[in-house]
Fold Gamma-butyrobetaine dioxygenase.
Amino acid sequence: MAMATLRFIGRKIVLGKQGPGLAAASTLRRALATTVGSVDKQKRLLTVRWSDKSRRDSLLPLAWLRDNCQCSACFHPDTLSRLQLMENFDPKIGADSVQFDDASKTCSVTWSDGHVSTYKYDWLMRRSFDSESQQQRSLWYSGKHELWGSDYAIRRHPFDQLMKSDSSLLQFLNDMEAFGLTVVEGAPIAGTEGLRAVTDLCNRVAFPMETNYGTTFTVKSKLNPSNLAYTPARLGLHVDLPFYKDPPGIQLLHCLAQSNNITGGENFFSDGFHAANLLKVANSDAYKMLTTRLVDFYDYETDHLADFHMLCRQRVISLTSDGEYEMICYNNQVRDTYLNMPADQVQLFYDALKAFDTLLHGEQCSVSTKLKEGDIVTFDNRRVLHGRNSYTVHGTAERHLEGAYLRWDEVYSRIRRLEESVRSRQP
Amino acid sequence: MAMATLRFIGRKIVLGKQGPGLAAASTLRRALATTVGSVDKQKRLLTVRWSDKSRRDSLLPLAWLRDNCQCSACFHPDTLSRLQLMENFDPKIGADSVQFDDASKTCSVTWSDGHVSTYKYDWLMRRSFDSESQQQRSLWYSGKHELWGSDYAIRRHPFDQLMKSDSSLLQFLNDMEAFGLTVVEGAPIAGTEGLRAVTDLCNRVAFPMETNYGTTFTVKSKLNPSNLAYTPARLGLHVDLPFYKDPPGIQLLHCLAQSNNITGGENFFSDGFHAANLLKVANSDAYKMLTTRLVDFYDYETDHLADFHMLCRQRVISLTSDGEYEMICYNNQVRDTYLNMPADQVQLFYDALKAFDTLLHGEQCSVSTKLKEGDIVTFDNRRVLHGRNSYTVHGTAERHLEGAYLRWDEVYSRIRRLEESVRSRQP
């Protein structure tokens, strides 16, 4: 087993071809006032003991260090992208020496081909491979959900405030991330300003996601409707566009016209992850069915863009490989008449779907609200299901919503940049 | 065990509360000239023996039949959506009688609540639950891939032809589906017509997918580039935008300016699914690593839309739950400096990545072409990786590409509608 010879020359380790093993623990303890390291040539790991005693040792793989050289030949400073090509990268490259400089807080590695890579201490610390550092990093990723039931008081945010204040915008987006259901209130309703308010809000966050229903869509009772939402029918709890492999992340519905002359039309919402949790406890067979079986969703229509025939097979409850909730994909309206499973599974499938639907609509889960003019209800279309009571119009009143979608990728990107600018969080 | 009493009254089955079991096989044989059925009340299945002897028996679950009643109260004829609410649906509803009419080729079920559902024979046959019917249906879904190596002669399609002929457009899209790499040639290059040609082609298929780089993007050597593609550097084989959870499906790059005064800048391509197959045979450990480990991709920049900080964890080789290839997600430029795995896995990870990259670039896989002005190279960004040689400009020449993306969901939708209109394929 080839191990590094560790000879401390100042704070430089010169690595011999063979050696007796890692520096003894006592050697490392004596050197605590300065940052020191040792290389295990067999495992190809550099262990760093930081002079800052509050920091744990960092285990840094040599291949990773070479891959992430930050010099301008290896890493492009403007685009923050790796210039070094994998074609030219030797994952087994050796390190000839490692040097620590506590004054400049940098670590330099001289590689066997003569290339020198220099890393800042804090840059390395944040990228350490211990589980604590990695958990810290994972916080930048999505998934800070707070599940809710029927006692959830829908968070409300003033439109004007969001449009001008970055910290208000961030608070709104944090609420969307956590609860997946908010109302933005006081949006303009008159004229072109009213018509474009939902787009303005999208553009304040990122930009609207175009779909087969357009960049925005008008929810009214229409002649020759292309979608059941464009009729006055009751809509059960559903997500929009489940026939997309990657359905829209956030849906925004801006109420431009509502009236006392309209009976019904209340919206109701349900946290699909919460209902899935309830299902898991109450009916594990149903939960298993809905987390594994693929269900066909479809949309065969013509809207202003073109004729379309969308098809997608989705799990009603999608889990990540870690078993976390990823997405709810359920829409009874556009669930296909084709059902791709063996006949002997079908009854169990319907029993499972009925059980889930009953929980979603039940008193433990569902919250209801009737939108007021100027309200923009915004919800996580991959988690929070929405429904609508049927409505009747008396006289000339009209119910009119303008809708749009955002993708979570771009919303999370916006959150990260706002966390950085508003809260000085280090990216 | 409660089984149906089968009494053939004409071609009507009246189902009693209790009974001796299914009609004997001999009864069914005698009735072959007409369509007959039997209901298993325990399994809640209707078995139909069609008068058309070339058709196998259909097994039709009762719950599915009730769910898919096509009457105008249950199913909206304009939107082709289910009006029946799951809230009002009883998955255990009983069938009082089933009637077959070979003259009108319809089957009617009278349910225990008095509701009557009528289905056309061919509608039922196409939705049967036998594996043959279900395989037939699955052909409407994606995945008709023909993998290729370095001997692939890139399919070429004339721009004008695609823009005016639906059958040419369909042939182009079928090639994209099968091979994931084509060149559309002879696109306009002059003036605004040239600048918008890639958008025109997108709109002919569906519409461009907007991303953090815009609805379209200009690939030139730029000052203060936001992406390595906007420099003259060599780019190894990669997919675009792997920091999206759902990266763009098809990429289109329209060459507007190329010149003899530009040395280099050739493009090269590699079928990632083919390379993955080679890897699986040559190095199963590497294959396992790349199909399971999540890798961080990121993009931290400012483009014309906004500041962004995109992050996504992806498998380099994604498989479906059936073990089919779903997506290749590899881009060495924007692979993050953060690597979310235990230190002792890192060397194996780099060895695996190097092995895959070597296959991708190797002589078994890679094809090369230098784009000519008017070429629009189009490729499946989730399967076919693209790269570019570094280039040097002599004098005032400029290399200029206009790029755009399409989503596969909308492309497949377009293919389905074209299959229907051009080839009369039944949807």
